[in-house]
Request: fold
Amino acid sequence: MTTSLDSLCSRYADMSIDICRELIRRSSEDPPGDTRQIASYIYSLLLSHGINCKIVSPHPQKPSIIANIIGEKPGKHVVFNGHIDTFPVGDLKQWTVDPFGGELIDGKIFGRGSADMKGGVAASLTAAIILNQMKEDLYGKISVTCVSDEEVDGPWGSHYILNRFPDLYGDALINGEPSSMEHIRIGEKGIFQARIYVNTSGGHGAYTGLTHNAIKIMTNILANLVPLDEENLNVPPSIKLMMEQSRNSYEKILGAGATDQALMHTINYGTIHGGIMVNMVPEYCTAEIDCRFPPGVTSVIIEEWLNAVIRKFQSEADIRYTVIKRTDPYITTPQNLLVRIAQKCISDITGQTAFPNYSLGGTEAVLWRSHGVPAITYGPSHHNMGGADEYIFADELPQIASVHANIAYNYLLNTALL
Reply:
């Protein structure tokens, strides 16, 4: 850490707490996904600190913010990315605090999106405010992208800005999704989500022998969707070793068995609908499945597995499916310069050892990794994420803001000197 950066982090990092609370106070539940108030706040905040930024709004209710900081020395391009929409609040009766109050109680910041991911966004915004004051010492360029439409995997946030402004892929990505202070997420499991349709001729409920039952066929399909075993997963030994090295820390945060889950193919049966009346043999049934799979497996392999199961029942009904979402499990290697710099910065600032590993859930960092750009996720520990009384610990945010600023600065410095 340079003396100048050290001084600025000491002076400004605590801003991240206030910024996070202000972000929470601007509802951005998705659905419906209206982010106009929170985007307006971020835009005004960045402008007030002399940072060049603009509002990009291909959808009138779902704007995103793009900001740029240009260093006075030539170099690479680091991008901060975070989403500003959140899960819906759900049942207000389950909350003991105002979900949009941004209340600070006993060192905890409460509110919808505090963990996912307004805390991480606040840290990145604070890092940008710090780095903007070092432009004369800064190599290259820093961009900040605060996007909408992430929670519903919609087209108007990161997907849009990367298509419209491909320069925003940059050379390295820092994302503030919740990871915990001792984890650097360098990848995530792959995703294959599909909607399966079964159609038959149906019939009278008293004459079940005359026709096929669409719901019964669907349940047989789902029962046969047995996850691939270890022999068919082909997880690289280096990935297994990385996850084993972080096992104790990983499971302290995510629970016993989380490491094994990370190395497995899992399937969730998300929805199922079928039939018209209790006294009719159902003529249709629809189900949605969500498969997650580790490095070494591709979405093509998972789709072949699904097709093989469907073929077993094809003679009984018209069976088809549509793909809802598919991403492969892209990984930034632990040896990558970005990861090594992140580990050192985290150790220097927090005093903790940071373990590289990959997440069970998905983030938009995959959009950068799939494009060949090294990407890390580093954000606060999450508590009750997606549930009532969601919160993070306030004292983590200044440290994360300092880590973000230091990773970006040192990555640009080191790549310029190579």
